[in-house]
Give the backbone structure.
Amino acid sequence: MTDAASTPVRPVPAATVLLVRDAPSFEVLMVKRHHQIDFASGALVFPGGKAEAGDSDPRWADYSTGWDPEAGVEQALKVAAIREAFEESGVLLARTREGRPWCAEPRAAAAREAVTKGDRAFIDLLRELDLRLDLEAMSVYARWITPPITPKRFDTWFFIATAPQDQLAACDGWETVDAEWIAPGEALRLAEAGQRKIIFPTRMNLKMLSESNCVAEAISAAKARAIVVVEPKVERREEGPVLVLPPDAGYGVVAEPLSAAM
Protein backbone atom coordinates (compact mmCIF):
# COMPACT_ATOMS: atom_id res chain seq x y z
CA MET A 1 0.00 0.00 0.00
CA THR A 2 1.37 3.41 -0.95
CA ASP A 3 1.89 5.91 1.83
CA ALA A 4 0.21 9.12 0.58
CA ALA A 5 2.50 11.23 2.74
CA SER A 6 5.58 9.80 0.95
CA THR A 7 4.17 10.22 -2.58
CA PRO A 8 5.86 13.17 -4.34
CA VAL A 9 3.58 16.08 -5.22
CA ARG A 10 2.86 16.28 -8.94
CA PRO A 11 4.52 19.39 -10.46
CA VAL A 12 2.15 22.13 -11.62
CA PRO A 13 2.83 23.52 -15.13
CA ALA A 14 4.11 27.11 -14.95
CA ALA A 15 5.79 29.67 -17.18
CA THR A 16 7.92 32.76 -16.78
CA VAL A 17 9.57 35.19 -19.15
CA LEU A 18 12.85 37.06 -19.11
CA LEU A 19 12.02 40.37 -20.77
CA VAL A 20 15.35 41.92 -21.73
CA ARG A 21 16.38 45.26 -23.19
CA ASP A 22 19.44 47.35 -24.03
CA ALA A 23 18.56 50.70 -22.48
CA PRO A 24 21.39 51.61 -22.77
CA SER A 25 22.92 48.73 -20.80
CA PHE A 26 21.71 45.13 -20.77
CA GLU A 27 18.80 44.76 -18.32
CA VAL A 28 16.05 42.30 -17.42
CA LEU A 29 12.63 43.03 -15.95
CA MET A 30 12.08 41.67 -12.45
CA VAL A 31 9.17 42.01 -10.06
CA LYS A 32 9.01 41.72 -6.29
CA ARG A 33 6.40 39.29 -5.05
CA HIS A 34 3.98 40.38 -2.34
CA HIS A 35 5.04 39.27 1.14
CA GLN A 36 1.66 37.55 1.65
CA ILE A 37 2.01 35.32 -1.43
CA ASP A 38 2.55 31.74 -0.29
CA PHE A 39 5.36 30.96 -2.76
CA ALA A 40 8.58 32.99 -2.93
CA SER A 41 7.03 35.77 -0.87
CA GLY A 42 9.07 38.97 -0.98
CA ALA A 43 11.42 37.56 -3.62
CA LEU A 44 12.63 39.29 -6.75
CA VAL A 45 11.55 37.11 -9.69
CA PHE A 46 10.89 37.19 -13.41
CA PRO A 47 7.18 37.72 -14.20
CA GLY A 48 5.44 34.36 -14.30
CA GLY A 49 3.06 31.93 -12.68
CA LYS A 50 0.89 28.85 -13.08
CA ALA A 51 -0.67 27.90 -16.38
CA GLU A 52 -4.44 28.23 -16.66
CA ALA A 53 -7.02 26.40 -18.77
CA GLY A 54 -7.54 29.47 -20.96
CA ASP A 55 -3.90 29.35 -22.05
CA SER A 56 -4.75 26.26 -24.12
CA ASP A 57 -7.83 27.77 -25.76
CA PRO A 58 -7.74 26.75 -29.46
CA ARG A 59 -8.95 30.26 -30.37
CA TRP A 60 -5.41 31.49 -29.71
CA ALA A 61 -4.67 30.30 -33.26
CA ASP A 62 -6.56 33.40 -34.43
CA TYR A 63 -5.07 35.73 -31.82
CA SER A 64 -1.35 35.03 -31.95
CA THR A 65 1.56 35.14 -34.35
CA GLY A 66 3.65 32.04 -34.87
CA TRP A 67 0.90 29.65 -33.79
CA ASP A 68 2.04 26.05 -34.22
CA PRO A 69 -0.66 23.39 -33.70
CA GLU A 70 2.08 20.79 -33.18
CA ALA A 71 3.82 22.69 -30.40
CA GLY A 72 1.50 21.36 -27.69
CA VAL A 73 2.32 22.29 -24.11
CA GLU A 74 5.16 24.64 -25.07
CA GLN A 75 2.76 26.85 -26.99
CA ALA A 76 0.21 27.03 -24.17
CA LEU A 77 3.02 27.95 -21.77
CA LYS A 78 4.14 30.77 -24.05
CA VAL A 79 0.60 32.14 -23.77
CA ALA A 80 0.78 31.69 -19.99
CA ALA A 81 4.09 33.54 -19.79
CA ILE A 82 2.76 36.50 -21.79
CA ARG A 83 -0.44 36.60 -19.74
CA GLU A 84 1.47 36.50 -16.47
CA ALA A 85 3.84 39.25 -17.62
CA PHE A 86 0.83 41.41 -18.46
CA GLU A 87 -0.86 40.69 -15.12
CA GLU A 88 2.22 41.28 -12.99
CA SER A 89 3.96 44.11 -14.86
CA GLY A 90 1.48 45.52 -17.38
CA VAL A 91 3.86 44.72 -20.27
CA LEU A 92 2.09 42.97 -23.15
CA LEU A 93 3.98 41.11 -25.88
CA ALA A 94 1.57 41.64 -28.77
CA ARG A 95 1.28 42.93 -32.31
CA THR A 96 -1.47 44.63 -34.27
CA ARG A 97 -3.34 42.81 -37.01
CA GLU A 98 -0.95 44.49 -39.47
CA GLY A 99 2.07 43.09 -37.62
CA ARG A 100 3.26 46.27 -35.91
CA PRO A 101 4.49 46.14 -32.28
CA TRP A 102 1.66 47.17 -29.99
CA CYS A 103 1.95 50.31 -27.85
CA ALA A 104 0.12 50.51 -24.53
CA GLU A 105 -3.33 52.07 -24.41
CA PRO A 106 -5.80 52.82 -21.59
CA ARG A 107 -8.23 49.98 -22.40
CA ALA A 108 -5.60 47.36 -21.68
CA ALA A 109 -4.55 49.00 -18.42
CA ALA A 110 -8.17 49.28 -17.33
CA ALA A 111 -8.78 45.57 -17.97
CA ARG A 112 -5.60 44.35 -16.29
CA GLU A 113 -7.06 43.85 -12.81
CA ALA A 114 -10.08 41.95 -14.16
CA VAL A 115 -7.79 39.62 -16.12
CA THR A 116 -5.53 39.11 -13.10
CA LYS A 117 -8.45 38.20 -10.83
CA GLY A 118 -10.01 35.90 -13.40
CA ASP A 119 -13.07 38.08 -13.93
CA ARG A 120 -12.24 38.48 -17.60
CA ALA A 121 -10.66 36.07 -20.08
CA PHE A 122 -7.31 37.20 -21.42
CA ILE A 123 -8.27 36.15 -24.93
CA ASP A 124 -11.37 38.37 -24.80
CA LEU A 125 -9.14 41.38 -24.14
CA LEU A 126 -6.95 40.54 -27.13
CA ARG A 127 -10.06 40.18 -29.28
CA GLU A 128 -11.40 43.57 -28.15
CA LEU A 129 -8.08 45.27 -28.88
CA ASP A 130 -7.71 43.33 -32.14
CA LEU A 131 -4.22 42.20 -31.15
CA ARG A 132 -2.15 39.06 -31.62
CA LEU A 133 0.14 37.61 -28.95
CA ASP A 134 3.72 37.70 -30.22
CA LEU A 135 4.63 34.03 -29.71
CA GLU A 136 7.31 34.36 -32.40
CA ALA A 137 9.23 36.74 -30.13
CA MET A 138 9.72 34.07 -27.44
CA SER A 139 12.52 31.53 -27.22
CA VAL A 140 12.84 28.76 -24.66
CA TYR A 141 15.51 29.67 -22.12
CA ALA A 142 15.35 26.87 -19.55
CA ARG A 143 13.05 24.34 -17.93
CA TRP A 144 13.14 23.61 -14.21
CA ILE A 145 11.19 21.07 -12.15
CA THR A 146 11.00 21.62 -8.40
CA PRO A 147 12.54 18.64 -6.55
CA PRO A 148 10.25 16.18 -4.71
CA ILE A 149 11.48 17.30 -1.28
CA THR A 150 9.41 20.50 -1.48
CA PRO A 151 5.71 20.72 -0.53
CA LYS A 152 4.92 22.75 -3.68
CA ARG A 153 6.31 21.68 -7.02
CA PHE A 154 6.32 23.42 -10.40
CA ASP A 155 7.35 22.38 -13.89
CA THR A 156 8.44 25.83 -15.01
CA TRP A 157 9.36 26.80 -18.55
CA PHE A 158 11.52 29.91 -18.79
CA PHE A 159 11.28 31.96 -21.98
CA ILE A 160 13.26 34.97 -23.14
CA ALA A 161 12.06 37.83 -25.34
CA THR A 162 13.01 41.36 -26.28
CA ALA A 163 10.97 43.78 -24.20
CA PRO A 164 8.59 45.91 -26.28
CA GLN A 165 9.44 49.58 -26.57
CA ASP A 166 7.12 52.33 -25.37
CA GLN A 167 5.58 50.21 -22.60
CA LEU A 168 6.11 51.02 -18.95
CA ALA A 169 6.39 48.25 -16.37
CA ALA A 170 4.37 48.70 -13.17
CA CYS A 171 3.55 46.27 -10.38
CA ASP A 172 -0.05 45.19 -9.93
CA GLY A 173 -0.03 45.90 -6.17
CA TRP A 174 -1.58 42.53 -5.51
CA GLU A 175 0.80 39.71 -6.49
CA THR A 176 3.71 42.09 -7.05
CA VAL A 177 4.70 45.21 -5.12
CA ASP A 178 7.56 46.49 -7.26
CA ALA A 179 8.88 46.24 -10.81
CA GLU A 180 12.38 47.17 -11.87
CA TRP A 181 14.75 46.90 -14.80
CA ILE A 182 18.08 45.67 -13.55
CA ALA A 183 21.37 44.36 -14.92
CA PRO A 184 21.67 40.62 -14.17
CA GLY A 185 25.02 41.08 -12.45
CA GLU A 186 23.65 43.89 -10.28
CA ALA A 187 20.72 41.72 -9.18
CA LEU A 188 23.18 39.01 -8.17
CA ARG A 189 25.32 41.53 -6.29
CA LEU A 190 22.32 42.82 -4.35
CA ALA A 191 21.28 39.27 -3.49
CA GLU A 192 24.78 38.46 -2.26
CA ALA A 193 24.72 41.62 -0.10
CA GLY A 194 21.36 40.60 1.38
CA GLN A 195 19.58 43.58 -0.18
CA ARG A 196 17.38 41.42 -2.40
CA LYS A 197 15.80 38.02 -1.86
CA ILE A 198 16.32 35.86 -4.94
CA ILE A 199 15.37 32.18 -4.94
CA PHE A 200 17.71 29.50 -6.28
CA PRO A 201 16.27 28.92 -9.80
CA THR A 202 16.03 32.67 -10.44
CA ARG A 203 19.58 33.17 -9.24
CA MET A 204 20.94 30.40 -11.46
CA ASN A 205 19.21 31.84 -14.52
CA LEU A 206 20.45 35.33 -13.67
CA LYS A 207 23.99 33.94 -13.57
CA MET A 208 23.56 32.39 -17.00
CA LEU A 209 21.98 35.60 -18.31
CA SER A 210 24.88 37.65 -16.93
CA GLU A 211 27.21 35.82 -19.33
CA SER A 212 25.64 37.81 -22.17
CA ASN A 213 26.36 41.48 -22.83
CA CYS A 214 23.29 42.43 -24.84
CA VAL A 215 19.83 41.28 -25.90
CA ALA A 216 20.93 39.79 -29.21
CA GLU A 217 23.67 37.79 -27.54
CA ALA A 218 21.36 36.44 -24.82
CA ILE A 219 18.65 35.36 -27.26
CA SER A 220 21.16 33.86 -29.66
CA ALA A 221 22.71 31.84 -26.82
CA ALA A 222 19.27 30.57 -25.76
CA LYS A 223 18.42 29.45 -29.30
CA ALA A 224 21.75 27.65 -29.66
CA ARG A 225 21.64 25.92 -26.28
CA ALA A 226 20.18 22.41 -25.96
CA ILE A 227 17.50 22.63 -23.28
CA VAL A 228 18.18 20.13 -20.50
CA VAL A 229 15.39 19.68 -17.97
CA VAL A 230 16.75 20.75 -14.58
CA GLU A 231 15.47 18.93 -11.51
CA PRO A 232 17.89 19.72 -8.68
CA LYS A 233 19.06 16.65 -6.76
CA VAL A 234 20.06 16.50 -3.11
CA GLU A 235 23.43 14.93 -2.39
CA ARG A 236 24.56 14.08 1.12
CA ARG A 237 28.12 15.25 1.58
CA GLU A 238 30.45 15.60 4.50
CA GLU A 239 29.67 19.32 4.80
CA GLY A 240 25.94 18.61 4.67
CA PRO A 241 23.22 18.23 2.03
CA VAL A 242 23.75 20.15 -1.20
CA LEU A 243 21.65 20.76 -4.31
CA VAL A 244 23.36 19.76 -7.55
CA LEU A 245 22.32 20.48 -11.14
CA PRO A 246 22.89 18.46 -14.32
CA PRO A 247 26.39 19.38 -15.53
CA ASP A 248 25.21 19.75 -19.13
CA ALA A 249 22.36 22.18 -18.39
CA GLY A 250 24.43 25.31 -19.02
CA TYR A 251 25.01 26.42 -15.41
CA GLY A 252 28.41 24.83 -14.92
CA VAL A 253 29.21 22.78 -11.83
CA VAL A 254 26.73 23.72 -9.11
CA ALA A 255 26.74 22.36 -5.56
CA GLU A 256 24.60 24.73 -3.46
CA PRO A 257 24.17 24.12 0.30
CA LEU A 258 20.55 23.10 0.78
CA SER A 259 20.15 25.60 3.62
CA ALA A 260 21.11 28.48 1.30
CA ALA A 261 18.99 27.38 -1.66
CA MET A 262 15.62 26.82 -0.01
The radius of gyration is 18 Å. The chain is about 25% helix and 25% strand. Residues 232-262 form one domain.
